[in-house]
Amino acid sequence: MNACRRRIFITATCALAGAVAASGPAAGQPPDAGAAANTIFVGDHIVTMEPDGPPVEAVAVRGETIVAAGAREDVLALRGDATRVVELGERALLPGFIDAHGHFLAVGMTLDALALHPPPVGDVRTIDDIVGKIRAWIAEREIPPGEMVSGGGYDDSLLAENRHPTRYDLDRASAEHPIVLTHVSGHLRTANSLALRTAGVTADTPDPPGGHIRRVGGTGEPDGVLEETAGGLVGSSWLFRPTDDLEGLARRAIDVYTSYGTTTIQDGATGAEMVRRLRAAADREPFAADVAVFPRFGTMEDAESATLEADYRGGLRVAGVKMFLDGSPQGRTAWVTEPYHEGPPGAPADYRAYGTSDPDLYRAGAAHLIRRGVPILVHANGDAAIDLMLDGVEAAVAGLDPPPDHRSVIIHAQLMRADQLDRAAALGAVPSFFSAHAFFWGDWHRRSFGEARGNAISPIRWAIERGVRFTVHNDAPVVPPDIMRLVSITVNRRTRSGHVLGPEQRATVREALHAVTLGAAYQYFEEDVKGSIAPGKQADLVVLERNPLTADPAELEHIRVVETFSRGRSVYARPAE
């Protein structure tokens, strides 16, 4: 167990500067400097993400480790007969990107699934497009009557009809197959009549705790749209359906992430059986990149049985526990303190959505995990959910002297208020902003929450002003795991309509890059081994076709990944054109 990760248990703070200083002089010559490097990178665009130090002209890698970073001549002294020397030219070398939050197994699930995304991810624009794609899917795969058809990715905010497809729409696709579709957010589902009937969902079915069954006006009859926990009434989401080839799916998903320069990947809310199967796969053959899994919390038994793996084995470790407190702003189920400006169809004027978990269970679970040194990721989009999240952390650390270095993560943190950022700073909580929302749903949020709240979604500048450590993420497969597009949106905050969403909340390019490198490494308690280019750190690196720090900010999302290195090994190279 490395020193910094061991401190998760003793609650001391990792000192990155000390770790780097201990690795050698500025040129990065470790004690065995005479041994030849496997790879040396040389160029004028090496972005180390280190906070201090002279410019770096070359980087040497031996095995899985960066062994030198400094002046060109000093580093080239480590060249041997078999050393690969990469002359970067106009290309840039950066630390490998770190996925602060996502669902990599679900990304794998989508590769061979019925996908119904709108542009720019897919081509669905109308409910008729959805119906047509379902019909074609059934016909092409010769799916027999009675067999479930599942898919997802549709977005009511971008459909021409501006609504969810209902049971009656899906009945047009097939009345002989149960059909269940998952909303792009993952927080709502819609089912056809046969799926509802098969599941026994009727006008007499009550709303489950933390969920809502939408009804046909005046009748009580389900219209097919199921919010939050109500979705479970009709079976598993398309993103978490059973599969015999979990290992193959996982490895294909890792290939997707490494093509975007990501070398540390997250699976948030992993089921216990999935963790067991992933561990067996990683032990058989190491994964090409590091995968951190966070099992889902649902009962106190989950908290009591949670185990934490401080180091990766075969590229896999259990890094903490995932908890849920509310829904999604794009699905209009984020739990807020002030009413929605425009809520779901039929919602009352004072609609604020709702929590999805028992508050007492969350508080008890958070306290148990934090006091045991197990990191927690807590899904909280709306400010009411964020209040509860912070209340739980505050209660967990109360009376502990010194307070633990827990780094509890507020996942999404979309509607986080300025005063909540003050609390996060005091408590040492880490908001991970779903800043990709600014483009994908920024215009929708202005409708849902009004101009003031809508424009303040993902308040990154407020966080920076308060010294709050933060990260940003894609929440793939909600949006693709494209890190350079995430960086671009974080910097530009331009919506689909061209509106700049809260320009005062924009990050600089370096700040956005920090959030997906060294900042994300801090979130994982891994800043001593990842997140920057420095001697002694793991050789996770990405080569970009040009330097994002000198590029036009409007062009950031078009900067392509040339090659990705994980633990010193090339795991992705862009095909030659």
Short description:
This protein is α/β, with parallel strands linked by helices and 577 residues long.
Overview of this protein structure:
This protein is of the alpha/beta class. The chain has 19 helices and 23 strands. Helix 4 (104-110) packs across helix 8 and helix 5 runs parallel beside helix 6. The chain is globular and about 80 Å long.
Placed side by side, the strands forming the largest sheet appear as 7-8-9-10-12-11
Straight-line N-to-C gap: 43 Å
Query: What is the typical, i.e. mean, pLDDT?
Result: 92
Main sheet characteristics: 6 strands, mixed
Number of strands: 23
Shape: globular
**In terms of structural class, how would the helical and strand content be classed?**
alpha/beta
- Enumerate how many helices there are, as a single number: 19
Q: How much helicity do the residues have?
A: 25-40%
Radius of gyration: 24 Å
Assembly classification: single chain
State which percent range the strand residues make up: 15-25%
Low-confidence stretches: 1-31
Provide key terms for this protein:
alpha/beta; disordered N terminus; single chain; 6-stranded mixed β-sheet; 577 residues
Helices and strands in order:
Elements (H helix, E strand, L loop, with lengths): L2 H8 L5 H6 L17 E4 L15 E5 L2 E6 L1 H5 L7 E4 L4 E4 L1 E2 L5 H7 L3 E2 L11 H15 L7 E6 L12 H7 L5 E5 L4 E4 L1 H7 L11 E5 L6 E7 L17 H14 L2 E9 L1 H13 L5 E6 L4 H6 L10 E3 L2 E4 L34 H13 L4 E5 L2 H15 L11 E4 L5 H10 L2 E4 L3 H4 L1 H14 L4 H6 L5 E2 L10 H10 L16 H7 L2 H6 L17 E4 L16 E6 L2 E5 L4
Parallel strand pairs: 1-4, 6-13, 7-8, 8-9, 13-14, 14-15, 16-17, 17-18, 18-19, 19-20
Antiparallel strand pairs: 1-2, 2-3, 5-21, 9-10, 10-12, 11-12, 21-22, 22-23
Helix pairs in contact: 4-8, 5-6, 11-12, 12-13
